[in-house]
């Protein structure tokens, strides 16, 4: 057989790309260290600092910090002023690396690939056997990483943009309704809604006991525990309460039987109730999902979302890049007559479903 003819320019570009990705993988460890050790916070708003000053502010050893700072400068994560040999975190870098309340705060999201690496033996086994891996079987950094990744986006968008994009829902929340947050995880979405709408009552359901405990702690800390209850329950066994709003935040595609979950949502909804479905942003055709966001989601979907859906029997394993058309079909099969896109962000589709067409 003839040796394949190599396009050397293409090879070089691809090797460069693979090296960039490898460096980014190493860089994730550096970001996590910078976050956990308070190095970014020590630099935020402080102007140019020597390595010694950064180390002193963060209470760390100078030699380690100076090497870390050079890793950050090489990555473009901090600026280095060569003449004064000082390092500076620009305001834009601080928003991404130091400000926990910023909608673009990234460091805790590195917990997700950390858990994916830790879980590699399970994933190898799953690929070979076809068996599932449940959400709660993963390294504990997964739940924290996912909750932190989505929390700031929810904080920026859920109350000011997504809920108002749903037909008539804000008025009903202001008046006072019962709301279900299915697959609530650490409950950040539930707590945000409870803070914004004190006349409504909120019920978070999840199968993962640790997440429910964490969600209860968040509600206590936010001072909304009087109107928020978290309970361990599967999406297909949510108790009937005549909910005015049923939410699925980034979880429908994780479920082993999304049609059954959507059907249950229809059963527990009030007559004029609304389902808010928040799913990872995706276009309908895989060939149109080829950007950075799709790359993140397909990777997480491979080891986490599909693996969990399979662990629950895998009637329909949607994956994290299902797209609106397939999600609409789930709700059609579950008996909903109305389904539309209410809003979108680079990371999320916000979809509205009702049992009857308006
Ligand atoms: C990707 S996380 C999303 C968590 C949260 N909604 C958020 O946006 O941060 C998916 C969640 O779905 C939960 N989950 C998985 N299967 C479930 C089921 N059958 N019923 C209820 N929750 C489930 C998991 O335990 C996990 O907390």
UniProtKB/TrEMBL annotation:
Residues 28-98 form the S-adenosylmethionine-dependent methyltransferase Rv2258c-like winged HTH domain. InterPro entries: Methyltranfer_dom, SAM-binding_MTase, SAM-dependent_MTases_sf, WH-like_DNA-bd_sf, WH_DNA-bd_sf, WHD_Rv2258c. GO terms for biological process: methylation. It holds the Pfam family Methyltransf_31. Keywords: Methyltransferase, Transferase, Ubiquinone. GO terms for molecular function: methyltransferase activity. It comes from the Bacteria. Residues 175-335 form the Methyltransferase domain. CDD domains: AdoMet_MTases (cd02440). This is Methylase involved in ubiquinone/menaquinone biosynthesis. It comes from Hydrogenophaga intermedia. The lineage of its organism: Bacteria, Pseudomonadati, Pseudomonadota, Betaproteobacteria, Burkholderiales.
């Amino acid at each position: 057989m003839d040796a394949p003819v190599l396009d050397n320019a293409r090879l070089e570009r691809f090797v460069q790309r693979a090296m960039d990705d490898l460096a980014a993988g190493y860089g994730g460890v550096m970001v996590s260290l910078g976050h956990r050790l308070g190095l970014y916070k020590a630099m935020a708003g402080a102007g140019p600092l020597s390595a010694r000053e950064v180390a002193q502010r963060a209470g760390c050893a100078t030699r380690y910090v100076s090497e870390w700072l050079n890793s950050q400068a090489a990555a473009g994560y901090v600026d280095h002023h060569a003449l004064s040999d000082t390092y500076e975190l620009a305001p834009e870098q601080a928003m991404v690396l130091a400000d926990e309340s910023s909608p673009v705060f990234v460091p805790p999201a590195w917990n997700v690939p950390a858990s994916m690496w830790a879980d590699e033996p399970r994933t190898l086994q799953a690929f070979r056997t076809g068996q599932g891996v449940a959400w709660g079987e993963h390294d504990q950094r997964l739940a924290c990483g996912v909750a932190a990744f989505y929390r700031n986006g929810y904080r920026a968008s859920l109350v000011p943009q997504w809920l108002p994009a749903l037909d008539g829902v804000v008025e009903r929340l202001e008046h006072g309704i019962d709301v279900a947050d299915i697959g609530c995880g650490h409950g950040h979405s539930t707590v945000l809604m409870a803070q914004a709408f004190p006349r409504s009552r909120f019920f978070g359901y999840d199968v993962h006991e640790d997440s429910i405990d964490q969600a209860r702690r968040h509600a206590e800390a936010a001072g909304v525990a009087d109107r928020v209850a978290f309970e361990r329950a599967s999406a297909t066994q949510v108790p009937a309460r005549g909910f005015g709003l049923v939410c699925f935040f980034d979880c429908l595609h994780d479920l082993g039987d999304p049609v059954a979950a959507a059907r249950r949502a229809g059963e527990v909804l009030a007559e004029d109730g609304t389902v808010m479905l928040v799913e990872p942003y995706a276009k309908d055709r895989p060939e149109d999902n080829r950007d950075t966001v799709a790359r993140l989601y397909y990777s997480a979907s491979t080891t986490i979302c599909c693996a969990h859906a399979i662990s629950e029997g895998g009637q329909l394993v949607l994956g994290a890049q299902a797209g609106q058309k397939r999600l609409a079909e789930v709700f059609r099969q579950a008996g909903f007559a109305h389904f539309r896109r209410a809003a979108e962000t680079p990371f999320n589709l916000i979809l509205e479903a009702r049992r009857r067409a308006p």
